[in-house]
Task: structure prediction
Amino acid sequence: MKQNKGKIGIKEYIAIIALTIGTKLSDDTPSIIYEDARNAGWISVLLIGAMAFIPILLLIKVFSAHKDKNLHEVFIYLFGKILGNLISILILIIGVAALTVDSGIYVDIIGTMYFTTTPSLIIYGVLMIVCAYGAKRGIEQIGSVSWLLLPYLKITLFVALFFSLKEGHTGFIFPLWGESRLEVVKAAGKNVSIFVDFLLIGLIAPLVSSFKDYKKGTLIGLGMVTAEISLATAAFVMLFDYTTAEMLSYPFHETIRYIQIGFLANVETLFFPFWLVATFIRFSFYLYLSAVMLGGILKIKEFEYLIPLITLIVIFLGIAPDSPSILLYTMRQTILMILSPAFMFLPPLMWLIAKIRGDFKNETVLESS
Result:
């Protein structure tokens, strides 16, 4: 593949994880978690991270025996051409659906909270065109920009969470287990797929500088985003109480509009530019992954030329809903519930088949190389 000529280092890889998965704390993910976990949503996020660790670790084990293959190529090797391609097609369809819903949610955030007079179609078009350009630039550029932006984004996030915790009330997070431990665990099980990106990131596994960097970066990234989303989920509850936080479609953006930082009258102007650039990077990366998967299925080496096609499909599907805030929220919940069992089942199955095939006979040698 043409784009495969370059690779990314562990810093860029972790930055991509932080900007694609970590930024989920700024959309409706916290609201979805609050629905079952209530004020214990932050504990539910920690459980999600613990549950996701098992399939992610098994996925890493599989890639340790297939360091030169991406996720689609591993599917073909383990399941055969027919079943492997079928699995890839299903993942691609669900992935494009999730991309459509997620981008629609971000368009709704921009349109309802920042550019209220701008038509959604214009916002959608500009967002996806910029993201398509970013995806076309390749994984090296996406990784470089992610690493460049990461410190600024994390500093602004830390400032927002610091003032949220400062102005919040600790008592709002009690009782720690919310209504019941069962509901907290239920929320974790239903929404463990918020980390399904770690499965899809396997499409760029061979593009990380070394397998050790891929393994280390994946585990560090998992710990980082779990801690960030958990902390943010707790901060929103402490600031608003869970009854209010649950009703807010986008708690993060309500938070930066609510908190006060010294003499700044419009605090959101400090955060919005960095968040917007992170949004561009996130969807550029998703478009890139979709193109890699579609290129693998169709056996197209110059897969970057598929990016405009995928972008058009996403735009046409994304502008269809008449009531984005309500409909997109429901659609995202459905997608998360569908992906959660698939995320928990597929990596263990891949590991089991690789084990039966004897792919780990030289495991020690492979991991040390």
About this structure: Confidence is low (pLDDT under 50) at residues 365-369. DSSP finds 16 helices and no strands in the chain. Residues 135 and 284 are 5 Å apart (CA to CA). The first helix runs from residue 10 to 20.
